[in-house]
Amino acid sequence: MKLFVANWKMHMTRPEARAYAEALSEILGDGAPRRELVLAPPYTALEAARDLKGRWSLAGQNVAAEARGAFTGEVSAAMLSDAGCRYVIVGHSERRRIFGEGEETLAKKLARVREAGLVPIYCVGETGEERAAGQTSKILARQTATLAADSSDSPLVVAYEPVWAIGTGVAATPRDAGEARARLAELLSARRSPRVLYGGSVTPENAEELLEVSRVDGFLIGRASLNARSFAAIAGLSSLDGYPAGV
Ligand code: PGA
Question: Cα–Cα–Cα angle for 167, 193, 122, nearest 5°?
Answer without folding.
Answer: 30
